[in-house]
Design goal:
The chain is α/β, with parallel strands linked by helices and 230 residues long. 41% of the residues lie in helices and 21% in strands. The chain is built from eight helices and nine strands. The N and C termini lie far apart (65 Å).
Length: 230
């Protein structure tokens, strides 16, 4: 009985050491996401598929570590972390990457597309060019872009908006993106750029009366070393 126990412990120790060695040899990928881990969320469905394919084609070479619900900072903070190399991947709205790579902001131009099919077709045609801008200007490579709905304006019951005139004179939260701010100013509204992470507090405290949101496009980014494209 003792001999069996010793043999079992030795085998277990060897297996544990092998497992630890395999884990240590994997490439750690720290991933930031602005949403929770809901199974129904399109971002999470897409992320899981991306991980599945990455592991399949790399022979399970990666150790993906997901941090949801803006645990690693708001979306623009995660881009800075990507640039510093402390983060390897982030999922964020395209308009929050545009301040770092202005040329990529074309996907957020208002009223540019009549249908999603038009958007998808142009995005496919522009993929290489868009990524060239993303890398050279922002230091990150785009892995995927996901369209998950149209942007919407939401306000409190005190400020119902049924037509454009109703929105005039009320403070509207917009993303921290010059294009979005200028668009709302052109419409005669009063935009206030607020991080998505601070939007709920801003609404509660009356800093803004409403918000413009809903991730119309979500981009998955990874850090891309500068010397690779210099």
């Amino acid at each position: 009985m003792k001999r069996f126990l010793v043999a079992f412990l030795v085998c277990t120790a060897m297996l544990l050491a092998q497992t630890q060695a395999q884990a240590a040899s994997k490439i750690t990928v720290i991933v930031a996401s602005s949403v929770d881990t809901s199974e129904q969320n399109y971002m999470n469905v897409t992320y899981k598929k991306l991980v599945e394919l990455a592991q399949k084609y790399s022979d399970n070479a990666f150790d993906f570590q997901l941090f949801p619900s803006m645990q690693l900072g708001d979306e623009q903070e995660t881009v800075r972390a990507l640039q510093l190399g402390t983060l390897q991947m982030s999922m964020l709205a395209t308009n929050n990457y545009a301040p770092f790579a202005p040329s990529c902001g074309w996907v957020n131009m208002p009223y540019l597309f009549d249908t999603l099919d038009e958007f998808r077709a142009l995005l496919d045609a522009m993929w290489e060019q868009n990524n060239e801008w993303a890398v050279k200007e922002g230091g990150c490579r785009i892995l995927s872009i996901l369209d998950i709905g149209y942007r919407q304006l939401t306000t409190s019951a005190k400020h119902p908006v049924r037509k454009l005139a109703d929105a005039k004179g009320i403070k509207i939260r917009t993303p921290q993106n010059a294009l979005m701010v200028s668009t709302f100013k052109a419409l005669g509204l009063e935009p206030t750029a607020v991080s998505f992470a601070e939007t709920f507090n801003a609404l509660q405290q009356g800093v803004v009366d409403g918000q413009e949101g809903c991730f119309n496009n979500v981009v998955t980014l990874k850090f891309y070393e500068a010397q690779k494209y210099a």
